[in-house]
Amino acid sequence: KMPEDLKSAFVAIEYKRFRQHQGVDWKRTVAAFANMFVDLYSSNQGGSTITQQLVKNITGDNKQTPMRKIREIMRARYLESEYHKDTILECYLNTISLGGGICGVEVAANYYFGKSTEELTLVECAAIASLAKEPEKYRPDKNPLNNKERRINVLYQMMDQGYISEEVYREAKE
Q1: Which residues pair with 103 in a beta bridge?
Q2: What is the rounded CA–CA span in Å between residue 63 and residue 55?
Q3: pLDDT tens digits along 82-97
Q4: pTM for this entry
Q5: Which of 48, 64, 110, 150 is most open to solvent, judged by the fewest CB atoms within 10 Å of its CB?
Q6: Distance between CA 85 and CA 139 in Å, rounded?
Q7: 10 to each of 5, 16, 70, 130, 153, how far by Cα in Å?
């Protein structure tokens, strides 16, 4: 019963190539591995796709080691071979940490907005998707200005990727 805007918001901000890959983004994964040994980026660059993040959410296996990454890749490839993308996305959205001990978008919708996901507006969908990067930093109840800034970015990414029109973006931004 998740609205398309909610799914689109997460895909737009978390991993826009979700529907094109087979569970692993090899280019990002190789870059993340290389960054472990040579400082290519100023911070740890994540190579994880939504499918790989789902694997971490389910298994709790989140050590920063090459062996964990290999296990994650194998598990993500398996999930992609057995399940439809919509099922993978639904499972991810039902297991993601969204601040304050909240797991899953339904709990987040109830906690932050007092409603079910199926009742969320576009702006509320973007607000929840904003939490994925750093839940505590972007909580709408504790850090509303941070959430607003990130929410506008989510809406822009949705417009840029064709999920919403420019007119809808401008209206939601306001």
Answers
A1: 97
A2: 13
A3: 999 999 999 999 999 9
A4: 0.88
A5: 64
A6: 28
A7: 9, 9, 25, 8, 12
